[in-house]
Amino acid sequence: MGGIKTSIARKVAMALSGLFLVLFLAQHFTINFTSVVSPDTFNEISQFMGTNFLVQAVLQPILIFGVIFHFVMGFVLEIKNNSARSVSYAKYNGGANSPWVSRNMLLTGIVVLAFLGLHFYDFWVHEMQVKYIQGDMSGLNEAGEFRYYEETVAKFAGQPVRVAIYVFSFVLLMLHLLHGFASSFQTMGVNNKYSKGIKVFTKAFAIVIPMGFVFIAIFHYLNNL
Ligand code: HEM
């Protein structure tokens, strides 16, 4: 019984940290989307997010902890599940019992994590360097204009390989969320008249947000041909 209890606790921890990351994803998408419609708005929000004390000193560390926690727990869960089912799973194995996305959460998760490595290198490391090592919090370039929009666009303009890697990662993020987001509510025991609506919402979110990111990356690439 103890084993079952801890395995449920692990799944709940996975669901809660996943839901937290989904919230981050929604705000990250909303802010990034402004880069398509209004460079000025994107610059202003970026400057705010990049210099606000609450965002930088509280939310950012919580977010990074959330990413690491979700990733480490995901591994632990997978290893425990595999050792628990190593004998009996042979006869239940295969696509007949569970869809591909639910059986490959670790694989899609690892690809998203690898993407995050590249993504941090692309944006975050540079930001930390300019702001906290060079000590330049102005957000301005040498011409005295906000630098965020042009720096973001530069990652995609004339960079077909990076765009392709990003797009591939977003597709796998979609697959990861298609199972993960919906099942997090199940894990939390949500089972009422809203369950069906929640399922529709989570599946729609899992498709719309990653495809929105695809749109942003391809937009900046095509807009600068
Ligand atoms: C076209 C798509 C995307 C663009 C243009 C983009 C852009 C950015 C930029 C400009 C930053 C730097 C923020 C800073 O100043 O520190 C950033 C940070 C980050 N991005 Fe993205 N992003 C995209 C997609 C994603 C996706 C799909 C994920 C998650 C799976 C993600 C996760 C993160 C994380 C975790 C950070 C670090 C946040 C922090 O500053 O603490 N991004 N992104």
TrEMBL record:
GO cellular component, one term: membrane
Key words, A-Z: Membrane, Transmembrane, Transmembrane helix
Gene this chain is encoded by: sdhC
Membrane-spanning parts: 12-33, 53-79, 100-121, 163-183, 204-222
Source organism (scientific name): Psychroflexus salis
This protein's name: Succinate dehydrogenase
Keyword Transmembrane annotated: yes
InterPro entries from the UniProt entry: Cytochrome_b-558, SQR/QFR_C/D
